[in-house]
Amino acid sequence: MKLTVLGATGGVGSEVVKQALAAGHHVTAVVRDPSRLTAEGERLDVVVAGLSEHGALTEAVSGRDAVISALGARDRNPTTVVTDGVRAALAALGSAGSRRLLVVTASGPFVDGDPFFTRNVVKPILGRILRHAFADMVAAERIVRASDVDWTIVRPPRLLNGPHTGVIAASTEGNVPGSYSLNRADVADYLLRAASDDSLIRQTVAIAHG
C-alpha cells in the first residue's frame, strides 16, 4: 500500500511508519520537525508541512491508498490538534480525490461497553483530568462521521510503550470490556490491517489488549 501518516513523529505514528516500512509499504510521513523522525528507508518520503498548508497536504495524500491521522495532544492543556488534523486531512483528500481515512481517537471519552464501576467512577474522574483532549477527540469524530470519505475511527484505551504483541481485541459495538490498555505498537499493527479492510469503512472500532 501507499500510505500517508499525519503525526508521524508521535508515539503511535512513529510505530505506524516503522511497521509499514517493514511490511514493504510506501510511506509518506507528514511532519513539522523532520529531525524527530526516527525511521528511514527508500520507501519513505518525508513532507515537512503544517496542518494549514493545504497544497502540501493535498500532494502528500494524492494517489495514496489510505491516510492515517495519529495526531494527539501532548499535554493536558486546551487543544484542537485532533480536530485540526481531521479537518486538514478531509480538505486534502477532497482536493486530491482520495477517499480512505483512518483516525485515532481514544476509548476514554465513551462508555458504551464499559462495566458499572468504569462507567460511573473511573470515566468521570478521567474525563475531568483529560477534559480538553477528550473534547477535541469527540469533536473530531463528529467531523469525520459527517464527511463522505471512507473513514474508520479507531479508539484505543490507555497507551503503553511495550513491544508489539499482536494480541488485539476489537469491537464495533462499544469499548472492549475488561481491557484497559494497549501498546502503541499494537495500535499501529491494527491501523495497518484496518487500512485495507473494507468491512471497517464507516465504522468506529474500539481496540484493547486481547
From TrEMBL:
Domain of life: Bacteria
Residues annotated as domain NAD(P)-binding: 7-197
Gene3D superfamilies (alphabetical): NAD(P)-binding Rossmann-like Domain
Name under which the protein is recorded: NADH-flavin reductase
Organism: Amycolatopsis oliviviridis
